[in-house]
Fold this protein.
Amino acid sequence: MDYDRLEKLLASEKMPKYRLDQIRKAIFRDGVSSFSEILTLPRIFREELDEEVDILSFFPEKALKSLDGRSIKILLKLKDGKYIETVLISPKPGIWSACVSSQIGCPMGCQFCATGKGGFVRNLTSEEIIDQILFWKQHLKKNKISGIFSNIVFMGMGEPFLNWKEVSKSIKDLTDPKLFGFGSRSISVSTVGIREGIEKIAKEFPQVNLAISLHFGNNKKRSEYMPINKDYDLNNIKNSISCYFQKTRRKIFLEYIMLADINDSQKDADDLIKFIRSIDDNYLLHLNLIKYNETSGKFVPSTGTKMNEFKNYLVSREISVTIRKSLGEDIQGACGQLAGKN
Ligand code: SAH
Ligand code: SF4
């Protein structure tokens, strides 16, 4: 929602400040879907606001719920007619986590990713980013779904560090105690390894969690499947990680999708171990092995047995690693499956 516009409107109406506080609480904390629900406001004013101000900057079009009920994906039509997707996931009963998009499409072209396949359309505004959270708050309230809205992950469509101006503004709003009031540590940003972005987040939001999509411990292979590796290769990522550790002393999550016969051999594990060991303070790194979610016929997910073997091998070499569960695969609502199509 265009909060600045709302503030101006209230000022022009010479509304007392407590009215703005009432509206802020109702929208950003309680998740009301319209001003008419804010009964503490005078009726005439509620009607005027409903006419003048849109709470959401898009129109929800199609919702898909996974069979296990633990993830919901929604297709959103933006005001310019373009589409994005956002997902609500329940990693544990009573806990909800939102996966938000930061761009329409993505210019990075990672071969295994559905978002990358469609190319890049445009950056989202911070309003369009935070409205995804408002949307999920409203959804939980409307459907009387109980639980805690605990986390926000920038792991939907797009590369957040290519839209830092808007993403950083959205993080400011999400953590603003006067607006959403999320703790910085409940927000995670995932990047393909853009150095400038890693430096900026370390400086501006040292408490926000950082994940780096590594996927390969070998430059030749990484370049083959992730074009960005030509500009930000493993050596560059290593330097970014060191710089991040120096500034924040906080953990980084390395993401590793497991692709059968592509990056799941013992040699691949050895390359990965070598990379991790080459980094100072690597005890601050945690590796997440991720099941590949099908996006095209080109890749096949590694089997569960293979993933376990790979993990055990890493554990035996003292690498901190877990297999991350993937939710929402049956609705194409899992990582890398968001394409924003109707
Ligand atoms: N552009 C950022 C954030 C969005 S992608 C990034 O790449 O990190 C979010 C996560 O989903 C990344 O770790 C990405 O590598 C992963 N991903 C992409 N395609 C996937 C797929 N088909 N299966 C599983 N994970 C995938
Ligand atoms: Fe873009 Fe991330 Fe998908 Fe790569 S994995 S194409 S960086 S969204």
